[in-house]
Amino acid sequence: VRQRCISGGGECGRDGGCSDLVLETEPSVWRDYLGTHGAKRSLRPDLGVRLSVSGQQLVWFVEVDRGTEGLGRIRAKGRQYLEYWRTGQEQQRLGGVFPKVLWSVPDQRRRELLLRSLGELPPPAGEMFVVSTAERSAAVLTCQGAGFKDVAGRREQGLSLIHISEPTRPY
């Protein structure tokens, strides 16, 4: 699905704004892969987002959290992203990089819960996952929310593609 990029109520483009917005919806955003021990698995993000901001290509997987799933299930989904990252499939598609994963949550309380929960996962989860309230998610996706923190607590400078060293053996 190709659409014009809308930000802050107006179209942005040549003035350093965003362009070439592509939304990948379910089920085309789902990624089939072989998991640990060769088991067939399917990663099912809610949305895929690709856009250009000031000439920089940004790619995201988006998880929409409505606050109804337990934290154990959230951590399991986070572990599945790590498992998929280890396959190298997405990096092959994108030229050696993996999208950041935005968890869009209903409120600040839920954001804090997910930050703590996803923060318990092993590296590179801290670099991979970003948690934002729904009202700030569009700004994070377009890096107008530059300065947001990732799960590891590092302040982001606005890049959504992560260069993580070669996938390692499953733990």
Structural category: alpha+beta
DSSP summary: helix tally? 5
Percent range for β-strand residues = 25-35%
**Mind telling me the C-alpha Rg?**
16 Å
Major beta sheet, specifics? 7 strands, mixed
State the helicity in percent bands: 25-40%
End-to-end separation: 37 Å
Number of strands: 11
- Mean pLDDT value: 80
Q: Could you say which overall geometry the principal axes of the C-alpha atoms support? A: globular
Can you tell me the residue ranges where pLDDT is under 50 for at least 5 consecutive residues?
Answer: 1-15, 157-171
Secondary-structure element order, as H and E?
A: EEEEEEEEHHEHHEHE
Topology:
Blueprint lengths: L1 E2 L2 E2 L2 E2 L6 E8 L5 E4 L5 E4 L3 E7 L2 E9 L6 H17 L1 H6 L3 E8 L2 H12 L5 H4 E5 H8 L19 E2 L9
Parallel strand pairs: 8-9, 9-10
Antiparallel strand pairs: 1-4, 2-3, 4-7, 5-6, 7-8, 9-11
Quick recap:
The protein has five helices and eleven strands.
